[in-house]
Design a protein that fits this description.
305 residues; alpha+beta; 16% strand; elongated
């Protein structure tokens, strides 16, 4: 009986000692978890910008895109005003031709009425060109669909002052560029016509001066009013004859291309869309909730909530 009690006490002591050892091991493990492990980068605070230098630099993209979209709104308003003004000019009734070149250039795209006769001895050609008028082959005019041709520019001697200006009579297909092939269109005597005032045309940046020399190729690639007037000995004043001034069998008038591109709505959509997407990406990168650096940090935050 006594030996049995001793054996029981010995077993209880062993169990108690084992429990104490396991508890000590558990506490040691907990203390190890509580220790902060050094990291290469500091913990980013939640809901704040972690690196204002880099974030501020990258913020330039959405801000710039937004400013460009706003600028395109103003450009669209200006373009609409220009289109309205241009429509008013082209639809206004014709006025007499002013005396000076400066006054004439102020009437660009305005219609002027002149009376006089052509000087066919100094006829010039601007080409290659297409006919931009949809009314083809009607009212006795020459057939010309999409055929490549040129514009016939002829000095025009005014009856009231003996001044000479340049008149773009209109389009002819390539086979009718020589004057002898369209004798019915070479009308003699005084006529009255209406034309649209034009200014110098800018040479394409891809065209060299030697490639556009009219004395070498026999035709002009763009409208150089000053040089054309010098060669033809006329005033540097240029008008495009309107379609209604077309002479049967002669060049087709109305070759004034009046068009202003207005694509600012698409530009506005593009810039504002780019601004929104880049700002969203910036926010996700620099203003997102930071990922917890340690599991214990995450547990602490959850307990705080």
């Amino acid at each position: 009986m006594q030996s049995s009690a001793k054996y029981t006490m010995f077993a209880v002591k062993n169990i108690y000692s084992s429990l104490r050892q396991q508890l000590r091991s558990f506490r040691t493990a907990c203390k190890c978890h509580d220790k902060q492990v050094p990291r290469s980068s500091p913990i980013r605070p939640i809901g704040r910008i972690s690196n204002w230098g880099q974030a501020g630099f990258m913020l330039i993209i959405p801000v710039t895109s937004f400013c460009l979209g706003t600028w395109q709104i103003k450009r669209r308003e200006q373009k609409l005003e220009m289109i309205k003004l241009l429509e008013e000019k082209t639809t206004a009734p014709p006025v007499p031709l002013p005396q000076t070149r400066k006054e004439v250039e102020e009437l660009e795209y305005r219609k002027v009425k002149v009376r006089g006769r052509f000087d066919y001895s100094k006829e010039m050609v601007i080409g290659p060109r297409h006919n931009i008028i949809a009314k083809l082959g009607t009212e006795g005019n020459m057939q010309a669909t999409s055929t490549i041709g040129g514009y016939i520019v002829v000095p025009f001697i005014l009856s009231d002052s003996n001044r000479t200006i340049l008149v773009n009579r209109g389009y002819v297909p390539k086979r009718l560029i020589p004057a002898e092939k369209r004798p019915e269109g070479q009308i003699e005597g005084e006529i009255e016509l209406v034309g649209v005032v034009r200014k110098n045309e800018q040479r394409n940046v891809f065209m060299s001066k030697s490639a556009t020399d009219p004395t070498k190729y026999g035709y002009w690639m763009y409208r150089d009013i000053d040089l054309m007037a010098e060669i033809a000995n006329t005033e540097p004043i240029f008008i495009d004859a309107v379609y209604e001034s077309t002479i049967p069998g002669g060049p087709i008038g109305g070759q004034t291309k009046v068009q202003l591109r207005n694509e600012h709505l698409s530009y506005i959509f593009t810039w504002y869309t780019l601004s929104f997407l880049t700002f969203w990406m910036w926010k996700k990168t620099y203003y997102n909730k930071a990922i917890p650096d340690r599991a214990m940090d995450y547990i602490s935050r959850m307990k705080a909530k």
